[in-house]
Amino acid sequence: MEKRDYYEVLEVEKTASVEEIKKAYRKKAIQYHPDKNPGDKVAEEKFKEAAEAYDVLSNPDKRARYDQFGHAGMGGAAGNGGPFGGFSGGMSMDDIFSMFGDI
Questions:
Q1: Could you give the CA distance from residue 71 to residue 53 in angstroms, rounded to a whole number?
Q2: Is the dihedral of CA 3, 69, 91, 31 positive or negative?
Q3: What angle (nearest 5°) sits at the alpha carbon of residue 80, between those of residues 98 and 93?
Q4: pTM (2 decimals)?
Q5: Domains plus CATH for the chain?
Q6: What is the three-state SS of 36-82?
């Protein structure tokens, strides 16, 4: 399966600030969160895709590599299969849920 552009996933411009990326991610994560969409596999995949995009675009080093090389620049981190099917190892589910502590 071809990976979508991370900027498209979060619906932000390539020039987006870290704050704009975070805001866009939070919107997507809330929209597709498994608790809001129980049993919806499509929503679950979109949630994971948004988390992966955020993991890369919120990290200056990963973002620079992604901007230069695309998904190929991510090495084995993106799209490595396993229980999260391409979910990047740099962010745990606890990290994701902790972002919503103030909601």
A1: 11
A2: negative
A3: 10
A4: 0.71
A5: 6-98 (1.10.287.110)
A6: CCCCCHHHHHHHHHHHHHHHHHCCHHHHHHHHHHHHHHHCCCCCCCC
Per-residue pLDDT 10s for the chain (103 aa) are 578 999 999 999 999 999 999 999 999 999 999 999 999 999 999 999 999 999 999 999 999 999 999 998 887 544 444 444 444 455 555 666 666 665 5
- Around Cβ 12, how many Cβ atoms within 10 Å? 18
Token pair in block for residue 68: 């230069």
How far is residue 99 CA from its own chain's centroid?
Answer: 13
Q: Are 93 and 51 in contact (CB under 8 A)?
A: no
Q: Please name the residue that has the structure tokens 């997507």.
A: 28
Instruction: Give the integer Cα–Cα distance in Å for 47 and 95.
Output: 14
- The distance in angstroms from the start CA to the end CA of the chain is 34
